[in-house]
Backbone:
């Protein structure tokens, strides 16, 4: 190990109380930022989960629709026009909407009904039953995590939606809504009954392209023929939904504000402890300077300390981060730690700690080697 | 004839500003020669430490010239002065200034590390320097586990390990008892036998006089005396005429 790194590490670990204070600061800061950003990613993924699981090439929706849950409707008659467009293989209406789930106890809880052809969009992560079973009258799919809320216990459980009897035919695992309102999947015509959307209307028109059709070309044609509608690719609709929920509602800004607060707190705490550590070791830096060491050598000692702080603090924070991920895995809003986020957090921690070292470096810059004669 | 390793010519130094300004050095002319242990003596506030700082290229004089091994320190910036120190000067301090978190060997190696010498070469040189000051058996000890005399010997090993032309020692015996002080001075006197290296010891301690080849007195920033020491006289008695300095 280079001697400047040895000196840096020994000085760092020598004062255990200060080291612990530094670690608390870094870990607090990094965990805060990590969780905020993990929530951001988790939120971002959750708000588009149904779009992600729909195998449509294009989405036709009422002009100005903000997100998947938007209750805007378009005329079902557009299905014929869409299907007649060159390059379109299939146009499938999709119906969504809030409704009331009546528990056996008579209590009503809101649910979000998704009605489809059960091909282009069908429930995923099925753990009990089969998607085909949803063709049966009154058959619905519910997620296991909402059993208690919906007052059901599994396949065969009965309830009512807006006075229409339903029976649980499919159980899924992990299809959670960030709004905490349970998704109920059913066949489309019954979904109209549950939501009150007439057969003349639909929420979306899902478009599947013919083999070899040019996506952009078909989209342009559709958009031209449906001026009162928006025609988006899945990626565009995903981005529109995400932007709406994250930035249109202020939720994303709140998460970012928390993350920025974490960065500031971490930088200040690390800066403070590094500065006081440097001040305590001024004699040593003056001795190095008296021996003829360059400023660069002295900076390297401080930077090494900052990097050690960063690496150790980041390691501890990541362990806590993974514990948070595990803890929130089945919650309404899971924290998501992706490899790019972890790498970004490592880079952020290093930048934060090195930036924190600047005050200490400026202090050392003023060290007069003559002080070794007077102390 | 021995070479001049450090030279001060017409050096004047003011410290502080305004009413608090002190005329610390006044037209100092001094040449520290290789193969000599020079003792600089004077009362408190006489300018000893200021002169040491100027000669050690830590403090630029207000006027005058300082030359280290023939290289001028005039007009050079802090980094260039640091390089002069790195290349030519070793320091021994009254309060040792060892790194408490480094072992004896590592403390010595630091002086090499700042000079870009690392690894096995640095370890070997560090061992040799510690052996020279009689501490080969303490390489793994931390300073706080050693006596004051041992710590000062590590500081000397650190000062000599890079083979500098000048060793500047500031009150090296002040914090030590008589026995340890004598031991330290014996080591410094031994180091000063190298004709390519000069040793300057700043002290109040009259007990070190017997080790001096040359004694310089300073008062109120002026050199007021320059005499041969008893060690020099002893050398003159034992050395052939051709080996003597002029």
Residues:
């Amino acid at each position: 190990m280079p001697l400047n790194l040895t000196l840096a590490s020994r000085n760092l670990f020598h004062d255990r109380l200060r080291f612990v204070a530094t670690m608390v600061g870094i870990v607090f800061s990094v965990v805060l930022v990590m969780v905020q950003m993990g929530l951001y990613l988790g939120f971002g993924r959750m708000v588009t989960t149904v779009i992600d699981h729909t195998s449509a090439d294009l989405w036709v929706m009422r002009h100005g629709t903000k997100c998947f849950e938007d209750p805007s409707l378009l005329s079902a008659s557009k299905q014929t026009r869409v299907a007649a467009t060159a390059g379109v293989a299939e146009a499938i209406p999709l119906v969504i909407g809030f409704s009331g789930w009546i528990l056996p106890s008579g209590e009503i809880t809101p649910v979000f009904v998704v009605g489809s052809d059960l091909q282009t969009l069908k429930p995923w992560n099925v753990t009990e039953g089969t998607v085909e079973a949803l063709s049966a009258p009154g058959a619905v799919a519910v997620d296991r995590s909402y059993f208690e809320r919906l007052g059901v216990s599994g396949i065969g459980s009965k309830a009512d939606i807006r006075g229409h009897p339903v029976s649980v035919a499919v159980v899924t695992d992990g299809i959670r809504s960030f709004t905490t309102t349970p998704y109920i999947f059913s066949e489309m015509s019954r979904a109209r009954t549950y939501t009150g959307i007439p057969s003349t209307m639909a929420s979306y028109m899902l478009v599947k392209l013919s083999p070899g059709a040019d996506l952009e070309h078909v989209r342009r044609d559709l958009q031209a023929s449906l001026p009162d509608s928006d025609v988006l690719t899945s990626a565009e609709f995903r981005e529109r939904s995400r932007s709406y929920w994250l930035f249109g509602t202020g939720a994303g800004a709140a998460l970012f504000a928390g993350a920025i607060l974490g960065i500031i707190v971490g930088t200040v705490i690390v800066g403070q402890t590094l500065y006081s550590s440097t001040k305590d070791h001024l004699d040593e830096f003056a001795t190095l300077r008296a021996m003829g060491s360059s400023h660069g050598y002295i900076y390297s000692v401080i930077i090494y300390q900052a990097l050690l702080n960063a690496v150790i603090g980041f390691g501890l924070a990541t362990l806590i981060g993974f514990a948070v991920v595990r803890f929130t895995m089945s919650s309404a809003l899971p924290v998501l730690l992706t490899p790019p986020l972890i790498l970004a957090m490592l880079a952020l921690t290093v930048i934060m700690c090195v930036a924190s070292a600047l005050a200490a470096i400026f202090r050392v810059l003023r060290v007069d080697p003559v002080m070794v004669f007077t102390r | 004839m021995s070479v001049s390793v450090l030279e001060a010519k017409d050096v004047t130094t003011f410290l502080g500003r305004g009413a608090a300004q002190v005329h610390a050095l006044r037209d100092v002319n001094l040449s520290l020669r290789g193969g000599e242990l020079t003792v600089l003596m004077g009362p408190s506030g006489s300018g000893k430490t200021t002169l040491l700082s100027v000669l050690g290229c830590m403090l630029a004089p207000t006027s005058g010239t300082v030359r280290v091994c023939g290289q001028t320190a005039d007009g050079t910036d802090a980094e260039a002065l640091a390089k002069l120190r790195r290349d030519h000067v070793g320091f021994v301090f009254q309060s040792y200034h060892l790194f408490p978190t480094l072992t004896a060997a590592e403390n010595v190696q630091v002086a090499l590390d700042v000079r870009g010498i690392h690894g096995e070469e640095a370890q070997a040189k560090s061992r040799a320097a510690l052996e020279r000051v009689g501490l080969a058996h303490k390489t793994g000890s931390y300073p706080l586990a050693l006596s004051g005399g041992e710590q000062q010997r590590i500081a000397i090993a650190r000062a000599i390990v890079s083979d500098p032309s000048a060793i500047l020692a500031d009150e090296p015996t002040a914090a030590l008892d008589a026995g340890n002080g004598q031991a330290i001075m014996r080591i410094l006197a031994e180091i000063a036998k190298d004709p390519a290296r000069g040793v300057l010891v700043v002290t109040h301690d009259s007990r070190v006089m017997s080790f001096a080849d040359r004694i310089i007195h300073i008062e109120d920033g002026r050199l007021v005396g320059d005499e041969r020491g008893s060690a020099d006289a002893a050398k003159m008695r034992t050395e052939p005429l051709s080996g003597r300095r002029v």
Observations:
- The two ends of chain A are 30 Å apart (CA to CA).
- Chain A has 13 helices and twelve strands.
- The interface with chain B takes residues 2-4, 6-7, 10-11, 14, 283-284, 286-295, 297, 368-370, 372-375 of chain A (CB under 8 Å).
